[in-house]
Amino acid sequence: MDDMKIDTAGSGAEATDKLNASFYDVIVTDYSMDGIALLKTARSKDPEIPFILLIDFDEGAISEALKYGAEHCFKGRDRGVFFSDLDHRIRKAVEWRRERVLHQELDERHRALLQSLPAITFSSSLDFVPTSIRGKVEEITGYTKEEISSCNPSWGQIIHPDEFLWLRPKMDGARAGSLNISENEYRIVRKDGEVAWVHELVQIVCEGPGHSAKVEGVLYDITFRKRTEAALKDSESRYRELAGLLPLIAFELDLEGRVTFYNQKGLEVFGYSPEDLR
Description:
The chain has about 280 residues and is α+β, with helices and mostly antiparallel strands. Helices cover about 45% and strands about 20% of the residues. The chain has a five-stranded antiparallel β-sheet with strand order 5-4-8-7-6, with helices on both faces.
C-alpha cells in the first residue's frame, strides 16, 4: 500500500477525533476495539464512508457488521491470505470512495451551472411524466419542482392553449417513437397568469435492450428576446408608416446593397411596387 497514506489510532475515541479533523477514504478497525461503536459514530458523520471490520468467525459480529453496512474481513486465516484479502478490500473501497467523491463534485458543479443559467433540464417518460427536473424551474414557470414533478399541473396544462394545438402532434410522435429529436419555441402560462416564451430541445433516449425509452431535454427562457423582437418589429412598422408620409424618397438597403424598402414617394418615382422588392 505504498501508494496510500495510512493513519492509525489506538482507541475508538482517538479515531473519532481524527474523523472530526480530517477526510478519509476508508476505515479499517478491529472488532475487539469496540469497532461497532466506531462504525456507528462514523456512519453518523459520513453515511457513505467505506468501513472494513476485522473479525474472527463470529456470526453475531458478522450480523452486526452487515446491519450497519460494513464489510468484514476474517482474521483467523493464513497471514498471506488474510493480508492479500485485506489489501484487495481496501483498494476496492478507496477506488469506490474517490470515484464517488469525484461524481459528487461534478454533480455539484453541474447543479451550480444550471442554477446560473435561465434554463431547466429534465427527464421524463414517453408520456411526459417527469422523472427528474433541475434548474430555474420556479423562476421560469412560477411552479415549484414538486408541483411539476407530481404533474400538478401537467406540462400540457402549462403550455399555452394556442401552442398546444401544434405541439400535440409532436408529443404524439415522440410517444410513438417516430420523432427522435425536436426543437421548438412556444409560449407557456406561468402560475401567476403571465405568458412567457421558452425554447425547448428534446430527444428520445434508449439506453439499450431491456431499458425503456425516455425523454431528455433542456428548456430556456427566451421571453426577453421575444419581447425585444416584438418591440423592434413594432418600431420598424412605425418607422415605415412615418417614412410613407414624407414628400422625399426614403429607402433601405441590405448588406449586399439591394433595396429592400422604398417609401410611397420612391415607389412612384422609380415605378416599383412593394412586391417587386420582396
